[in-house]
Structure formats: structure tokens, C-alpha cells
Write a structure and sequence with these properties.
- The protein has 236 residues and is an alpha+beta fold.
- It folds into 2 domains: 6-99, Phosphorylase Kinase, domain 1 (2-Layer Sandwich); 103-235, Transferase(Phosphotransferase) domain 1 (Transferase(Phosphotransferase), domain 1, Orthogonal Bundle).
- The chain has helices spanning 6-13, 16-21, 57-77, 113-128, 167-191, 198-205, 209-235, and strands spanning 23-28, 36-42, 45-51, 87-89, 95-99, 103-105, 131-132, 142-145, 150-152, 159-160.
- Helix 4 runs antiparallel to helix 5 (167-191) and helix 5 (167-191) crosses helix 6 (198-205).
- The protein is globular and about 55 Å long.
- Bound molecules: adenosine-5'-triphosphate and magnesium ion.
- Adenosine-5'-triphosphate is lined by residues 27-28, 34-35, 37, 48, 50, 85, 98-101, 105, 140-141, 153-154, 156.
Length: 236
């Protein structure tokens, strides 16, 4: 593991309030079930602080630590892979400090054609390491650097491959791998139609089992969270 610069070590030693005091910009303001995502700076060092520490109630205290544990464990599993942010530090269970990737979200960037291939390779390497992202649709969690390097962020929804004896789990894992691939095809069809093959278009026209499952699970989880939040608001 590479050693931290003194400025980065200072960021890693900060608590929540101090990290927020060092925020230069918020990519995202927090909400009832949303983290704050801040770009923090100390001297030459910059990092992303993803934080549920000011998320109120049971979501902030019970669900958020689980979500960030999911994200942190994926970042550790993908640590060697260029294109994923490095995990720097966990100030506590509700916050996570990671590498800042100076890059633009895919929908706002105009990636050159070879970047699509590089993204395919990056996602394949992620799958090889046993992580399916599960939230690549729309491209908001895919960033593009100036050199055309693709990056992937936001691993809260990830699914990891299980041990080889766990056949049902690994079947599910493969469905989410297929859903990630289908998200990449959709990105090509939408943003670079000249790169999409007939097979790509055919695949999208008949939405696969993988995508329907991923979507149904995603919608179910979102509805469940909304329902729980609404009940929490009524009872408080
Ligand atoms: N490591 C990073 N480097 C640069 N930008 C980042 C990084 N992590 C997150 N961001 C920016 O912050 C945005 C929100 O972060 P993230 O997707 O992790 O949070 P989220 O709660 O899942 O947000 P959303 O619901 O919008 O997906 C990203 O879309 C990206 O623009
Ligand atoms: Mg996101």
C-alpha cells in the first residue's frame, strides 16, 4: 500500500466536523436517506468525504453504516484496480474518506470512442474480482478523466460473488453481472449509437431477465426505504 502524503495524513486524522470545515464543494447535499458527498481539501491533498453522519434517525444510525460497509468492502476488494477510488479512511461507521477522481460524469462528458472499450474492460476486470456494481444505469456513477480514463464510483448497491459452493447466490451474482453489461450497452446506444451493434440493439429491445430482476430488486428496495421513512416521520 502506498504511503500517504503529510497533507493526506492530516485529512485522515480529521473528525467529521473538521472534514466538513475543509469541504470545498458538495457534489451532493444529504437527505433523509442520502449521504453528503463533499470534496475536502488540506494543502495539496484532496479527497471525497461520503458522510451519513448528519442523516437523522434510524436511517442514519442503522442503515447508513451498513451501506458504507458495503461500499468500503468493495473498494478494498478492488484496491489494485486502476479506475476505482482508493479507500483512505473511515472516520467512523457513518463516514468514508476516499480518493478524489478529477473526472466528469459520463452523461456530461463526451467520451471518445476508445473510452467505451476501456470502460468495457474496466467493468470486466471488476467482475473478475467478484464485484457486480448493480447501479451503472444512466451513467451517473461512471466518470471520465481528461485522458479518457473511465472511473466507477458508488458501490453501495454492489453484489459480491459468493464461495464456489453457494450455487444459488452465484447464479444471482451472474444476473447482476449481466445487468451491468446491459447498462454499458444502453450507454453505447444512447451516447455513441455508431458503436452499437445490431446485437446490442436486439438485446435492449428484449430486456433480459437480468435487467428485469435488477430493476425489480432496486424498485423494491427504494419503495421499502420510502415506506420506512414515511412511518418514521409519522411516529416521531
Ligand atoms: N471518488 C470520487 N471522485 C470524484 N467524484 C466523486 C467520487 N465519488 C463520488 N463523486 C461524485 O459525487 C456524486 C455522488 O456520489 P455517489 O454516487 O457516491 O453518491 P450517491 O448518494 O449514490 O448519489 P446518487 O444518488 O446521485 O447516485 C457522483 O455522481 C460523482 O459526481
Ligand atoms: Mg451515485
Amino acid at each position: 500500500m502506498s504511503s500517504k502524503s503529510p497533507d493526506l495524513a492530516r485529512l485522515c486524522a480529521m473528525g467529521r466536523d473538521k472534514l466538513h470545515a475543509h469541504a470545498e464543494l458538495y457534489f451532493k447535499q444529504g437527505g433523509a436517506s442520502e449521504p453528503e458527498v463533499a470534496l475536502v481539501r488540506c494543502g495539496q491533498a484532496r479527497a471525497i468525504f461520503k458522510d451519513y453522519g448528519r442523516t437523522p434517525g434510524w436511517f442514519g444510525h442503522l442503515i447508513a453504516p451498513m451501506l458504507l460497509w458495503r461500499e468500503a468492502s468493495a473498494l478494498i476488494a478492488l484496491d489494485e484496480l486502476m479506475g476505482m477510488p482508493k479507500l483512505y479512511h473511515r472516520p467512523d461507521r457513518r463516514g468514508l474518506l476516499m480518493e478524489y477522481l478529477p473526472a466528469t460524469p459520463w452523461p456530461q462528458a463526451t467520451p471518445a470512442d476508445p473510452t467505451y472499450d476501456r470502460l468495457d474492460e474496466l467493468v470486466a476486470a471488476m467482475h473478475e474480482r467478484g464485484v457486480a456494481h448493480c447501479d451503472l444505469r444512466g451513467g451517473g456513477n461512471i466518470l471520465v478523466g481528461e485522458s479518457g480514463q473511465p472511473y466507477i464510483v458508488d458501490f453501495v448497491a454492489r453484489i459480491r460473488r459468493g464461495p464456489c459452493w453457494n450455487l444459488p447466490w452465484n447464479w444471482l451474482f451472474r444476473q447482476f453481472v449481466a445487468a451491468d453489461r446491459s447498462a454499458l450497452i444502453k450507454l453505447r446506444v444512447r451516447h455513441a449509437p455508431h458503436l452499437a451493434t445490431t446485437e446490442d440493439r436486439r438485446g435492449l429491445a428484449t430486456r433480459g431477465l437480468a435487467e428485469r430482476m435488477a430493476r425489480a430488486i432496486g424498485q423494491g428496495v427504494r419503495r421499502g426505504v420510502r415506506w420506512l421513512i414515511a412511518r418514521g416521520d409519522k411516529s416521531s
